[in-house]
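Justification of resources, computational component.

The compute hours requested in this renewal are based largely on the per-chain cost of generating structure records like the one below. Each record pairs the submitted sequence with a full structure-token output. That output is archived, and it is also reused by downstream analysis tasks.
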Amino acid sequence: MFFTSIKARILAIIFSMGLVSMVGFGQLSVLKDDHHHMVMLCFALNIFLAVLLAILLFKRILHPIRQLMHMADDFKDGILHERLEFNKKDELGVLGCDFIEMTEHVEALNKDLLERDALNQAYGSTVAMLSASNDREMALSEVLAMLSIHLPVFAGAVCLYGPEGKNLFLTAVHGMNDDVKVQKVFLNHVSEELESLGHMMSLKYLSDVEFVLDGKTDAMKPEYVVMVSMFYRQEKLGALVLASHQEFSPAQLDFLQKIVSNMAIAVKDISRYEHLELLNAELEKHREKLQQERDDAVEDSITDGLTRIYNRGYFDLSRKGFIQHARRNHEPLSLLLIDIDYFKAVNDTYGHPCGDEVLIRVAQVMKKSFRETDFVARYGGEEFICVLPHANVIQARQAAEKLRIAVASQHFDEMNGKSVTISIGLSMLKDDDANLQAMVERADKSLYHAKEIGRNCVVCDDEIGKL
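The structure output for this chain reads:
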């Protein structure tokens, strides 16, 4: 039997060695010279006891100390999994067991720190992911995929309420079957659990939820189904539901709470973004409508209501620009004043609706006959005016003759197949013309002259007096 105290052991060893020595010396004092073999026997017994006591001293004291030193060196080098056996019968044993318990605690703390560090990194990535995306389904699906990597999760879903906050919808799933009936049963159960949580963000383990995995047809009940309700302030948004075969650690549960909080913020931000996009789309439609109305109003203000070509008012606004452009670029400028022959007779004979049709058809022929750069307008009544930029007298006469022939070739059913003719007065820009009005006046004289000589012809201002 050994003493349980190291101090008692050392004292026992010293006492035993002293006792043996005293016995040996006592024998020396009483023995005679012929009993020297007894003396040798006593010394041998003393040496044997000393060696035995030394072995016991090493086994019970020095060896545990060396084990502790070895474990301390490993602990210093970061090796926390080394385990040695100690007997709790003395102070060294108690010290060794306490040291092992301390290393186990440090190892658990280190493992927890490593887990929290990994989860914090995943949390940072998740927050960045949610902040960068404006697509609700894609962002939540990526979060579910991330959770399956960092947590013992094999299936999960994000369930969100609709716009009115009544019906629950599966917004994103991971590892779940997409069968509508299966998802409806799942949603009904989750909806009931959410209603029981009230209006507080909470984490809850569900017991009766069944999952049908992707590619499977049979439902299974996971060992653990955790549901974290999702709230933005006091507004209930939905929940995150995860299926696992093992219980989550406190660090993992804390991680889930933080993830869901950021998911709620992201969902709300995306909803605001979508609402803003909708408002912007409506605003853009309204802006386009206003712009169209403005363009229509501008067009109506510058367009003749009947013939849909420019009106007299727009011609008056534009006439100054024609002269300036021609002077600046040293280009010729021609002007045609056009009148429908015997138009009053058309109105009197066939009626004003027929006259309107004649005006419309003549305007259409004019738009097709002239260039895009030419300016065509209704000048008043049955008169039309056309400005031909960078066109000399020859080019202007050719354009006028082309128009005259084109109009004469038109036949009107309203007039029993008859046609109408036009008379055209032509004038050219002269160096002493101060404005376009001078050209208009000369073209008007040319037109008057064309009517005098029989109509259905083209007369240039420099021809008056020669005809």
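The first helix runs from residue 6 to 30. The chain is about 60% helix and 15% strand.
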